[in-house]
Structures are given as C-alpha cells and as structure tokens.
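Key result, reporting period 2: structure in, sequence out.
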C-alpha cells in the first residue's frame, strides 16, 4: 500500500503531533508500506525556516526509505492569529501545487489541523481520485471559540464550520485522539461508523523509568532537589496563571524547584511573571531536543499542568500524559472528564477540577512528601501505559483503518 501523508507536523518540527506522525510513518514503512510525506520546511516552534532549508522552494529527502517532500511556507514567530493564518495558507498553496507531481497513492492520510492543510489534502484526493483518512489532533474551529477569538455567530466561525464539516463528510474515515472529540464530530455530521478513537500512544521502549539523569540535570543546571515540571508547548489551552500560583505556594520550600520546559504562544506570560522577581523557585528551560525528553521525564519527581475551563478541553488529552505515564512520572492535572478519568483509572496521579489551585497544591505536596505514594503512582502509570498506550498497538490500529479504506 502506498500512503501519502499530508501534514504540517513532521520531524524535525517539534510537538506531540509531529512525534506521533513521524513515528507512525516509520512503523508503517517497517511493515512493508510505501510512505510519502508532504510537509513543510522545518520551522516549528522557532517560527522561522531552518538555515539548511532557507531560500528553497522544495526539498526532497529520502529518510531510511521514507520519501519526505518539504515545501515552502511563510513561517512566522508571531502569536497573532492573522499571521498564523497567512503562514498556514501559504503551505496550503505550495502543498497543493507540489503534491500534483507525487504518484497516485492508495490512500491519503491527512493531519486535519490546520484546516488549510486539510484543504490541500482534500484537493489532492479529488485530483488523484484517492480516498482520505482524516487524523484529528485538535478540534477546529472549536479552538477559536475556546480562546475567545470569535463567537458561534461570527461569520468567520460559521464559514469555517461549514468548510470543516464538508471535509468530515468527504473523509472515508476519521481518527480522533479522544472519545470526546469523536462525539463532537458525530454531532456535527450525524452519527456514523467512520469515526474512530485511537490514542496518541508512546514508545514505551524509549520512555521508561530508571534512566540516569545526572548529566541532564547538570546540563540544564537543575540542581539536586525535587523537581516539579511542566513539559511541552506553552499553548493557549493551558492556564499558566494557575500553574504559577501553585509554584508560589512552594516558595518556602528550598528543596523544591518548578521547571517549565518548552515554549510557545504563552511565553510572554512566563516572561512577565519571571521578570517580577517573586518566582525565585521557578526555572524556565527553552525547547530541548525530543531525544532528551525521556531524561526530562525521569528527572521529574512530579509533573503538572492546568487546562483552561472550557468544554473543548474536557475531551482534550495532552500528548504529555502518555509520555509521563510511560516514564513513571506521577501526574497532577487540573482537568476534567476524559483526561481526568484516564488519570484516575490508571492510578498514575491526581486530577482536580479546572482552576483548583488548592487541589493542585495539596496533591503535589502529598506526592513530594510521601515517597511510597509517589512510587505507587509511578508503577501504576507505567503499567497502564504498557497495557493501553504501546505505540506498536497504536500503529496496528491505524494500519487496519488505512488498509480498509484503501481496499474500499
């Protein structure tokens, strides 16, 4: 089977979706399938095209048998929605044009976010008369509602809603990373049997407890005390004000350091808070290479995050949850519904309501001060990841759907 991936997110770009799709492409190739990837020039999260690719319209690489076609886009580091839309639209045009020269595949696998990437993939599927599988890693344009950018009656939202729903109808199959998102899509297009739920999963061979983190701690000057970490993209879905309030509650604990590793659109919030000088127990480490992420998780005594209070985030399962569990890192999260149930069912940590600063503080304090509880959560989270989130099982689920669509 020849599978064409159409995605904005693919290595060396960073982020959970890039990790998932890059790993999936390699796994499917190892199972004997021919893989072509149509993606952007490397630019994320820095917001500018890598020096090795700058000034080029197209770069084609063979990466261990996977053909990767990278096309130009107008990269931007700006968090402004208008600038991001221009960037996303530029890739839509270059991908739609360059994709015409790619031999006809058996199935097109489209990362549906941003919507403009999805439109490029749909255009290619029409031109090549090829069925498509949509992969939903974020609900859009629902996300615009969650950040207050528009309302449901706004013309932009209504137009975007119509376009997105048309792509849902066009797809032969839709894969969602959360049952909450699958339910939302079924409400938009009517209940049907083409919507599937497949969790992100994790490479449990790479992410596991017990790794030596001495050199990692020294490299980033993390000290030898207890670490409470936030790892990943500083996306708008996270409540950084609440997380920093939690950190302030531990200002009298010289043995505890809060470390934020990552960057993104809420970097300004971190910058302003740290500039005040009151968060002396908080350290910000910018993006690290994904190869170091297993060490970052193992160096963490506890990891935490807080999602904003919005219905969309009741179904949002952060990619970091999978890596944390596989690494045996206890979790404290201000989250509800789908992700909260996973955390509670696994025994890998504690879930408290949205914006519950007191609840997060108490749970973190218990885990830091009760070694037996911390070890119990570590073992339980790891066991749950081995049973439900193994990347090989995830790849098999994707392969089954792709084969079914291609044969149809």
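The corresponding designed sequence is given below.
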């Amino acid at each position: 089977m020849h599978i064409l991936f159409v995605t904005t997110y693919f290595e060396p770009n960073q982020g959970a979706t890039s990790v998932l799709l890059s790993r999936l492409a390699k796994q499917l190739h190892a199972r004997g399938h021919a893989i072509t990837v149509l993606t952007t020039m490397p630019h994320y999260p820095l917001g500018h095209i890598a020096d090795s690719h700058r000034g080029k319209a197209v770069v084609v690489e063979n990466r261990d048998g996977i053909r990767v076609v990278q096309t130009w886009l107008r990269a931007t580091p700006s968090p402004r929605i208008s600038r991001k839309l221009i960037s996303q639209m530029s890739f839509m045009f270059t991908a739609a044009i360059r994709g015409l020269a790619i031999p006809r595949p058996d199935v097109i696998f489209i990362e549906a976010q941003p919507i403009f990437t999805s439109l490029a993939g749909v255009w290619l599927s029409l031109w090549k008369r090829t069925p498509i599988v949509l992969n939903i890693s974020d609900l859009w344009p629902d996300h615009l509602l969650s950040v207050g950018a528009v309302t449901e009656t706004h013309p932009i939202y209504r137009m975007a809603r119509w376009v997105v729903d048309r792509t849902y109808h066009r797809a032969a199959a839709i894969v969602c990373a959360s049952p909450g998102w699958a339910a939302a899509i079924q409400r938009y297009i009517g209940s049907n049997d083409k919507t599937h739920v497949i969790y992100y999963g994790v490479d449990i061979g790479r992410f596991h407890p017990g790794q030596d983190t001495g050199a990692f701690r020294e490299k980033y000057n993390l000290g030898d005390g207890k670490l409470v970490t936030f790892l990943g993209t500083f996306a708008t879905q996270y409540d950084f004000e609440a997380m920093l309030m939690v950190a302030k509650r531990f200002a009298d604990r010289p043995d505890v350091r809060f470390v934020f590793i990552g960057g993104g659109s809420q970097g300004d919030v971190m910058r302003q808070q740290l500039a005040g000088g009151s968060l002396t127990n908080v350290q910000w480490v910018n993006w690290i290479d994904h190869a170091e992420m297993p060490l970052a998780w193992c160096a963490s005594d506890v990891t935490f995050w807080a999602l904003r209070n919005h219905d969309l985030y009741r179904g949002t399962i952060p990619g970091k949850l999978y890596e944390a569990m596989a690494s045996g890192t206890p979790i404290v999260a201000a989250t509800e519904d789908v992700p909260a149930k996973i955390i509670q069912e696994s025994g890998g940590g504690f879930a408290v309501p949205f914006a519950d600063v007191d609840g997060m503080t108490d749970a973190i304090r218990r885990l830091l001060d009760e070694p037996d509880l911390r070890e119990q959560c570590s073992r339980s989270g790891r066991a749950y990841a081995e049973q439900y989130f193994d990347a090989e099982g995830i790849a098999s689920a994707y392969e089954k759907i792709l084969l079914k669509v291609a044969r149809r």
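The longest strand covers residues 34-40. The chain has 15 helices and 14 strands. This case is discussed further under Risks and Mitigation.
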